[in-house]
Predict the structure.
Amino acid sequence: MAISTAERVPQHTAPHVNRRISRATQMRLAYFADHPEEIGERLDELDEEWDIERAIEANAATLALAGVALGATADRRWLVLPGLVTAFLLQHAIQGWCPPVPVLRRLGFRTADEIDRERYALKGLRGDFRAVDESGDRAAGALAAVE
């Protein structure tokens, strides 16, 4: 059976790296629990944070373009680079692993799911989800809480 999108990168990451990323998130949440006035700023930062998928896509595009440019201007053997990069990108799409994943995870890149968990925990700390219970229309209140 295929691994879910949310789980595939963490499953292919060393456990100590996953724990370090999780601890860093927990420490940030503990800080913001005591400094709720700063939560809005942190939410803005999370909106700007690149998840690992975006970093892999940018890395692949950069290497592929460089390989094509070098293949067209310097030596045709450089055209192997875009072929390898696209093969690794396909491998990542299917399995959730490719050579840059361990490096990017060690650098602290998180999955979109990991970023969203911090985002919703911060919104919970700020009280955004009270709107669900206080709203006459619970569905509208739920949507308002997550926006």
Summary: Residues 65 and 82 are 7 Å apart (CA to CA). The chain has nine helices and no strands. The chain has a mean pLDDT of 92. The two ends are 33 Å apart (CA to CA).
